[in-house]
Amino acid sequence: MSKEEPLNFIEHIIENDLESGYSPNSLRFRFPPEPNGYLHIGHASAICLNFGLGEKYKAPVNLRFDDTNPAKEEQEYVDAIKRDIEWLGYEWAEERYASDYFQQLYDWAVQFIKEGKAYVDSQTSEEIASQKGTPNEPGKESPYRNRPIEESLELFEKMKNGEVGEGEHVLRAKIDMASGNMLMRDPVMYRVLHKHHHRTGTDWKIFPMYDWTHGESDYIEQVSHSFCTLEFLPHRELYDWFLDQVHASNKLRPKQREFARRNLSHTVVSKRKLARLVEEGVVNGWDDPRMPTISGLRRRGYTPESIRNFAESIGVGKRENLIDVSHLEFNVREDLNKKATRVMAVLNPVKLIITNYPEGKTEWLDAENNPEDDSAGTRKIPFSRELYIEREDFKEEANRKFFRLTLGKEVRLKNAYIIMGESVVKDAEGNITEIHCSYDPDSKSGSGSEASMRKVKGTLHWVSVAHALPIEVRLYDRLFTDPSPDTHKDKDFMEFVNPNSLEVIQAYGEPALKDFKAEDKVQFQRLGYFTVDPDSTEDHLVYNRTVPLRDSWAKLDTGS
After folding, report:
1. How far apart are CA 115 and CA 245, in angstroms?
2. DSSP 3-state of 68
3. Residue 59 to residue 174: CA distance in whole angstroms
4. Of 281, 345, 394, 436, whose CB has the highest number of CB atoms within 10 Å?
5. In sequence order, what DSSP letters do the residues of 187-227 get, joined into one string?
6. Which positions fall inside the Glutamyl/glutaminyl-tRNA synthetase class Ib catalytic domain (predicted)?
7. How far apart are CA 78 and CA 255, in angstroms?
8. Distance between CA atoms of residues 353 and 370, nearest Å
9. 17 DSSP 8-state letter
10. Domain with 195 in it: what CATH number?
C-alpha cells in the first residue's frame, strides 16, 4: 500500500496487525446482514468498507447471512441483499449462512454444558430480565444456575427435538452475574422457536442468539477482522469470552472492532421503522424511491458510483454523526452530470405559438447529448410553429431580474432560435392559454450567422406540440420534513412525514424519451436528473426525478 495514502483508523488496525505478525494471506473480511428487510444507505457504507478493504488488501470478503431468527427472515430479503451488493459493484468470495453452522454451534453448546459453562434456565424471560440487575447493582443468580449437568443436557436435547414449548427453557452461558458489563451476566445462547426457517425448514427447534453465533461464525470462517457499528462495542467482551472457550492455538483468532454509524438527515434507517413505513402504506414498498434503501435509491436514479463515492467521502470514524442528505445528493449530481443524456421535457406546459413561422413546417435541429462527454454525440429534435414551454418561464410583466420570456423582450429557445414575446390569449378566468411570439429566422443556433451570435440573457427549453410525448413524471422529495425525525423523545417519527414527498404530474417530452429503458438516466434540461421507472411501458412512459439541478432545501434548512 502506498504510504502517501491517508489511512483511516480501521486501516491502521490492519496495518498494525500486519506489522505484528499477521500474514497478508490471513486477512479475511465479511459483511453479515440479517435477512429481515432491505439494505439501506447505512448498510451501503458498511458494504463499501468491508468490500473496499477486500479490494485494497486483495483479501476475500464473505457474504454471511445472520439467519438465526426465522420469525422475521425471508428468502425475498436474501435475494434483495445479494442483488444490492452486486449492483454496487462488489463480489463476495463465499456465500455463507449462520445456519450453515447450526450443528457445530449446537455441539459446542453441549460441550459448554458438560464443562459447566452453560445451563438450561427454566424461568420466564421476565424473571430473567428482573434478575439482571442494573449497571450499578449486580444481578442475582438464577435458581437453575447450578442445575446438574446431566439435567441440563437432557433438557437441552428436548429443546432441540421440539419436545418443549416456546419460552419454557433457554440455554444460558455461565459467566458472571456481578460483571460491570451487563451483557456478561449469563447471556442467553439459545431459545426455542417452532417456526419454519427459510433454509433449514423445521429441522431445528432451537436457534442461537446473535452474540453466540457472531464470533463463532467468524472463527469457523477464519475471518481476521470483524467490523461492527459502535453499538456493538459492549458486545466485544462477550465476543472474546465465547471465542476463548473454543479457540485452538493453531487457528487464527478473529477480532471485533467498531466504527461509528453514519446517520442520514431527513430519513430513518432503522429496519423496524422502515418496515412500518411499508406496512402502513406511507410508501409503496421497500423499493419506493423515497426510501433510503439501496433498492429505493436505485429506483430513484442513483448510480452505484454515486453511493460508493458518498461512502468514501464520509469515511469511517469513531463518533456517530448526522450526514446531511444534500451531501448524498451532491454525489449523484456530480456523477450524473458526467453521464446523463440531456433531453428536453416540459413539466408545467403552456402553449407558445411562433406567429411568423410557417404552418405545417418541421425542422430537425441538432442537439448535444452531453457537453461533459465528447463521445456522447448529438441527436435530432423536431421544431415547429407550436411549442410547449414551462408556464413559469413567462411573465406578462417582469422586472429586470427576470431573464426568461416576457412581452417585448428576447430569449433564445435552446438549440433553436431567438424569439420575442408579443401577446397572450387568456381564458374566461384570466389564465394564459397561449403565448404569441415572433422568431428571428437568421438566429438559428450553431448557424454561425451574425444574428445567431447575438447575446440574450435567457435560454428556455421547449417541446414541439406536434411531436410531444406525454409522460408521467414522479417528483420525489425528502420523506421527512425534520432532519432527524426519530430523535424526538416526545413524538412519533411518523408525525414528520413530508406530505409533499411525491407529486405525480403529466408532462411532455421530446421524442427521444421513448428510446430509454428502465433505469436509464437523463437530465431534463434546466430541471433536474430523472430516470426511467420500471413501471414504464411503451404506451405509458414514467420518469422519476432523482434530484433537482440545485438543492432547493438549503435555504429552508438554514432558516429552520
Report:
1. 10
2. coil
3. 36
4. 345
5. -EEEEE----BTTTBTS-SEEE-HHHHHHHHHHHHT-SEEE
6. 27-337
7. 26
8. 28
9. H
10. 3.90.800.10
pLDDT value of position 2: 45
- Is the confidence at residue 558, as pLDDT, over 60? no
Where are the strands (E) in 104-247, listed by range?
A: 118-121, 170-173, 188-192, 206-208, 225-229
Q: What is the mean pLDDT of residues 60-73?
A: 96
pLDDT tops 70 at residue 504: yes
Residue 59 region by backbone torsions, left for phi larger than 0, else alpha for psi between -120 and 50, else beta? beta
* Nearest one of 73, 497, 486 to 277, comparing CA atoms: 497
- Say which CATH number the domain at 408 has: 2.40.240.10
Query: Which pLDDT does position 555 carry in this prediction?
Result: 52
The Cα-based distances of 294 to 40, 307, 452, 490 in angstroms read 5, 9, 46, 30
The whole-number pLDDT of residue 301 equals: 98
Average pLDDT over the chain, rounded to an integer = 95
**Secondary structure of residue 345 in the 3-state scheme:** strand
**CA–CA distance, 82 with 80 (Å, rounded to integer):** 6
Same-domain check for residues 399 and 495: no
List, as one string, the DSSP characters of 478-531.
Answer: -SBSSSSTT--TTS-GGGGB-TTSEEEEEEEE-GGGGG--TT-EEEETTTEEEE
Together in a domain, 455 and 352: yes
For 457, other C-beta atoms within 10 Å of its C-beta total 12
pLDDT of residue 554: 63
**pLDDT value of position 551:** 81
* Alpha-carbon gap, residue 78 to 80, rounded angstroms: 6
Q: What is the pLDDT of residues 197-206, one digit of tens each?
A: 999 999 999 9
Are 383 and 482 contained in the same domain?
no
**Rg for the chain, CA atoms, rounded:** 31
Q: What is the mean pLDDT of residues 279-301?
A: 97
Across the range 445-462, mean pLDDT stands at 94
Grid coordinates belonging to 175: 459467566
Report the C-alpha gap between 346 and 270 in whole angstroms: 38
Asked if 170 and 128 count as a contact pair (C-beta separation under 8 A), the reply is yes
Same-domain pairing of 122 and 194 = yes
Q: Single out the residue in 180, 209, 238 at which a domain terminates.
A: 209
Residue list for the binding site for L-glutamine: 66, 210
Question: With the CA atoms of 188, 260, 221 and 62 taken in that order, what torsion angle do they form, in degrees rounded to the nearest 10?
Answer: 130
Last residue of a domain, one of 178, 209, 240: 209
57/108 Cα distance (integer angstroms): 33
pTM for the complete prediction? 0.92
d(C-alpha 367, C-alpha 306), whole Å = 27
d(CA 254, CA 231): 19
Q: Which pLDDT score is estimated for 321? A: 85
Looking at the annotation, which residues are catalytic? 34, 261, 271
